Amino acid sequence: MEEQDACEIICIDSEKVNRIASVLQKQNTAAAAKMFKALSDDTRIKIAYILSLEEELCVCDIANIAGVTTAAASHHLRLLKSLGLAKHKKVGKLVYYSLDDQHVKHLIQLAVAHQEEVMHRV
User: Fold this and answer.
1) Which residues of 11-43 are buried (b: 16+ CB within 10 A; e: fewer)?
2) CATH class of 34-121
3) Dist CA 59 CA 61 (whole Å)
4) In angstroms, rounded to a whole number, what is the distance separating the alpha carbons of residues 50 and 48?
5) CA angle 67, 96, 74 (to 5 degrees)
């Protein structure tokens, strides 16, 4: 017998629906979706995770750790920066990247930890 994944009848809790719909209207879920879309690329999530483990790294170090060219790392880092997930600073001839803030760091680390838990459940 197949498990049902939808209600068999329509039953709406108006109080909950109205309360949550009101909160949802104030949120920019499209921007959050863009952020998750950017992180859905294996190289970008690797780079973000690398930056969650070290406060700040130059593009060359990030590329070396991630196993990509510096050009590829720069491309991915620019995208992460454009979405507000990373920031950079130039010091002489080097460019250093870091995650934008603790929220981003926690998000990345939670995603990796969650996946580890899922893998151990199977």
Assistant:
1) eeeeeeeeeeeeeeeeeeeeeeeebeebbeeee
2) mainly alpha
3) 6
4) 5
5) 45
Reported as a single tens digit per residue, the pLDDT across 44-83 is 999 999 999 999 999 999 999 999 999 999 999 999 999 9
d(C-alpha 86, C-alpha 77), whole Å? 7
CB distance 49 to 99 below 8 Å: no
Q: Phi and psi at residue 13, in whole multiples of 5°?
A: -90, 95
By the 8 A CB rule, do 49 and 60 touch?
Answer: no
Which are the contacts of 30, defined by CB distance < 8 A and separation ≥ 6?
A: none
Contact 53, 109 (CB under 8 A): no
Q: What is the pTM of this model?
A: 0.84
